[in-house]
Amino acid sequence: MKKHIKNNVYWLGKLDWELDRFHGDDYSIINGSSQNSYLIREEKTVLIDTVWKPHAEEFINNLQSEVDLKSIDFIVVNHGEVDHSGALPALLEKIPGVPLYCTANAVKSLTGQYHHPEWNFNVVKTGDSIEIGNGKKLVFVEMRMLHWPDSMATYLTEDNILFSNDAFGQHFAADELFNDKTDQCLLWHEAMKYYANILNPFSPLVKKKIEEILALNLQIDIIATSHGVIWRQDPLKIVNTYYEWSQDYKEDQITIAYDTMWDGTMQLAHKIGEEISRLAPETKLKLFNISKSDKNEVMTEVFKSKAIVVGSPTVGQSILSSVGGWLEFLKELKFRGKKAAVFGCYGWSGESTKVLREKLTEAGFEVVEPEIKCQWNPDTEDLDKATLIAEAVI
Ligand code: FEO
């Protein structure tokens, strides 16, 4: 069912209530998601993006209940990733030869995924435009590495709508569709989780791209994303927020993340938390057992934090695999400007704090000197060292 956006622009996507994971298992979906496709019906009929392959049949049925497929003049493919291009093969079987407008890199990604070099690709770059009638045109803006090399946004003049694709999105199923109508806490949490877990590695490029877009002085009345809500109330708020998030964002928060074998490392985690709270009662404290927590939610808390404290016992002369995998993901997200401290129990050889220190340094954290390396279970002397860690990170 289509939904009206503005004038002759309609949403025609998939509200994906059942989706519970994304990018394989690398991103948890807690509040559903959506793949937003848009139909523009001016003198030209234009489709902007499609949906994920499992929803292709439903999408095409919806589309052809609204419009004769043969009347579609062209399709804009803002990004080749399968959640937006997945319905293209089935759709193009019905309307072969319809022009696709996309970046040069999207030709590579689409051809690599679907093996249809005969598709009618039309390569565009920043500043290129196409008339769609009634005095309106679509202007293309490459969004390289936000978050793929093939990403682009499309701006509809006169209606002043920026179809931003992944940028400014959220994995959030909102039947109400518009930002002003939805639950604000959920919306902003999901927007931040999306930024922290998907876009943060590209923050320097996000900053540069936002400066470039703002310098164009475009009137932007609506930002129509490819996931989650459409920003129509104060649409530049999410742009300015991205600008803030792209610059080593942190709040007055500290996150403790650990795993434990026989609870000794857990006791240290709790004691460090108590000391941080005692010495800095205004600082928000979050504490997670990594193996029992959603890693994307924990990373969102890391994104907000000025420092993290990471603990693991020694096992096999290294750290627990739960902590090792978590640190690999942490490194991938390229957080900058944050402190870290380490702790852990051991029985025999005691390498865990050294390994944690190395991995956190590699991940871009400034690792402070105080640590707790505790043989067997913590005694009073070990627990007292929590104060030194707290003092170093608050
Ligand atoms: Fe929503 Fe990069 O795909």
Secondary structure class reads alpha/beta
Biggest β-sheet description:
7 strands, mixed
What binds here, in terms of ligands, is: MU-OXO-diiron
Give helix % range: 25-40%
Number of strands: 24
The first-to-last residue Cα distance is 52 Å
What does the average pLDDT come to? 97
Low-confidence stretches: none
Strand content: 25-35%
Q: Strands across the major sheet, in which order?
A: 1-2-7-8-9-10-11
What is the general shape? elongated
Alpha carbon gyration radius = 24 Å
Number of helices: 13
Your description of this structure?
- With 394 residues, the protein is of the alpha/beta class.
- 34% of the residues lie in helices and 26% in strands.
- It has 13 helices and 24 strands.
- A 7-stranded mixed sheet has the order 1-2-7-8-9-10-11. A 6-stranded mixed sheet has the order 12-13-14-15-16-17, with no helix packed on it. A 5-stranded parallel sheet has the order 19-18-20-23-24, sandwiched between helices.
- Helix 6 runs antiparallel to helix 7, helix 8 packs across helix 13 and helix 10 runs parallel beside helix 11.
- The longest helix is centred in the middle third of the chain and has 16 residues.
- The chain is elongated.
- The chain starts with a strand and ends with a helix.
- 45% of the residues are buried.
- MU-OXO-diiron binds next to helix 2.
